[in-house]
Design goal:
The protein is mainly α and 89 residues long. The protein has one domain: Helix Hairpins. The chain contains four helices and no strands. Helix 3 runs antiparallel to helix 4.
Amino acid sequence: MALTKEVKAQLVKEYGKNDKDTGSVEVQIAILTYEINELNTHFSTHIHDFHSKRGLMRKIGHRRSLLNYLKNEDLHKYEALIEKLGLRR
């Protein structure tokens, strides 16, 4: 359930500018999306895990604010990223 080094490195390689680019907005959004998807699968079996649900809501809010920032800064990158991640269907 936790984000492993290999998965994080793969996300950084796919969404970052280089292999060490962990701080760019695109990489942060991709990592948060991965963690949110993992938590959603966790909640399919653990319905009454309300403490983790709070963490999920914080991650969703953080991703939303990063998406708003990216949308205001570079609309083309925003549109490409949400298409690639499958957000806002």
